[in-house]
Amino acid sequence: MSRLDADVKVRNPRTGEIDRDLAAPTAEELTALVAKLRGAQKNWEAIGAVKRGEILMQWHAELQKESDAIVQALYEDTGRITESKLELQVTLAGIERWAKMAPSLMDESESQKAQLPGVTIHPSYRPYQLVGVISPWNFPLLLGCIDAIPALAAGCAVIIKPSEVTPRFLAPLARSIERVPVLRDLFGTVEGAAEVGQALIPQVDFVCFTGSTEVGELIAAAGAKAFTPVSLELGGKDPAIVLPGADIDRAAAGILWGGTGNAGQSCLSIERVYAHADIYDDFIGKIAALANNIGINYPNLDSGALGPIIAIDQVETIKDHLADAYAKGAVALSGGEVKQLGGGYFLEATILINVDHSMKIMTAETFAPILPIMKVESEEQALELANATIYGLSGSVFAATIEDGMRIGRQIDAGAISINDASLTAIMHEGEKQAFKHSGIGGSRMGPASIRRFFRRQSLLVNTTSGNDAWWWNK
Ligand code: NAD
């Protein structure tokens, strides 16, 4: 039997070397794994949320023991180290949070009397048996686990298929799972690309997909065909608005971080800025000065902050968006050109001015440390342009007062708006939010509501009376 995705190879983004084959399963091996995970789920559901929390904390301890190996694997696949450590910390914190929180969110003790005399309603939470997680390369561990953890806490079995671009962390992750009896039978990982992803969809009961809007459409179609519900967390083109009266130093520093963290390879990166004419010159001067100081993380990890462009396919998109912008009159105040260094591709923090919506850099997802800044004449124009997009993931507002910021934020069609800050959802996961427009479909992945995606409500309607009910055929 041949392996699925047999031709896919893995590349190191720093050296450019293709140094590993993808270890995807055959179709038969995948089906056998799915059957094993499914088989263990009933017991996992039956032991209850408190016991599941205890077992998740055993996994937490085992995952911690693999810290060095996980960070090293993430580093080899992504070329950056700070964000790799952060991914691990956030994942560990997520396990702890869900282990603690899930029992109260799944408390089944309450029952209620119905309006009908003698009838009581006993509601319960019935988890999907097997959840499939299909995740992207930009935060491999974090986005592989962010849905898996609440799904496990809810009582589901889970299988993770991360991006073929970044599969190396699976080995230490799988080792940590393997050391936890019970969990190892119902929490699986699998390497693969599109073929494995497609093969999974009809074999699982719920799909959590994080990735591009393009592939999200294919996942939705495959889910519809198989009658597998899907949750889609997709691309973004997050706007930031800067208005007169805002703290311009804070806005410049915050937006720069929001646009260039993880070298801009984040769904919730700030990808375009609308700065009011009254503060425009001040703002672009300050942000360009700061951008010129960030530097790239080459030749070694101590130099500069921005790591390499992780996925080779992204290099062409970035070059194309920059060339299109320059051809139409954009000017770079910092950075501005993709450089090939030691086999990897790097881009300095790039501030662009003289931009408008005729350019791809203002409308399509670039996924790079680039901040195109457009001058606007009014708050209304800023809002109109901020909403002139197919995306609706998140956004940011810096205004004269917090009240102004909140009033403006409510008018942006996106799920999470940072006020007087940028990209806050990258570091805090408590606020419930959904993706708007083509940025996704489904319930909130953040906050307590996240767990609700993984179970169905079931009610037992118990009638304790005897004799015939009044509405039966009582002749
Ligand atoms: P991608 O859509 O190319 O791939 C995502 C996953 O889908 C990978 O595991 C891939 O193997 C799999 N896949 C690809 N084609 C498939 C198919 N036909 N059937 C089934 N599975 C398939 O995305 P990417 O390039 O890995 O990641 C970058 C994208 O992810 C960006 O658009 C970014 O905005 C988005 N993203 C969104 C969020 C969010 O929370 N909304 C978070 C991070 C990244």
Helix-strand layout with pairing:
Blueprint: E1 9-11, E2 18-21, H1 27-46, H2 48-65, H3 67-78, H4 82-105, E3 112-113, E4 119-127, E5 130-134, H5 140-145, H6 148-154, E6 157-161, H7 170-178, H8 183-186, E7 187-189, H9 194-200, E8 206-210, H10 213-226, E9 230-233, E10 238-242, H11 248-260, E11 270-276, H12 277-291, H13 312-327, E12 331-334, E13 339-341, E14 344-346, E15 350-353, H14 360-363, E16 370-376, H15 379-386, E17 391-392, E18 394-398, H16 402-409, E19 416-419, E20 436-437, E21 440-441, E22 455-463
Parallel strand pairs: 5-6, 5-8, 6-7, 8-9, 10-11, 10-18, 11-16, 15-16, 18-19
Antiparallel strand pairs: 1-2, 3-4, 4-22, 9-21, 12-15, 13-14, 17-20
Helix pairs in contact: 2-4, 2-6, 2-7, 4-6, 11-12
The chain binds nicotinamide-adenine-dinucleotide.
Nicotinamide-adenine-dinucleotide is lined by residues 134-138, 143, 161-164, 193-194, 197-198, 210-212, 215, 218-219, 233-236, 267, 311, 365, 367, 393, 435, 440.
